[in-house]
User: What shape does this take?
Amino acid sequence: FECDGEDLSEERVTLHEQLIGTTQLILIENTSKRSSNEIFGRCDGNLKVIIPSSDQVTVGDYVAVKIDSANSQVLKGKMLEKVTLKEFYDEFSTVTLVHHKLAAITQ
Assistant: This one.
């Protein structure tokens, strides 16, 4: 079995591009190495997400981020708001919305 790094990179780009337009929960980790005007964190799946710096958040905060671009290494987006886990899943999670709709139907 021979693995072509270029094929894997293209596959990663395709997978990451599927997240464009989605809202992701990000745990802020640090300032970006490439720009002091950006911070980064990770979403589910341990994907790195870069967003513009904000005085509203610090390392360890959770933020809701709208993903607007992707490459094989990172996702980039804009912060929507600082959130708690509960707030995110109550407001942004389609799984939670589906769960609430199903619960309402079965009552």
Q: What stands out?
A: The mean pLDDT is 83. The radius of gyration is 16 Å. The CA atoms of residues 13 and 72 lie 4 Å apart.
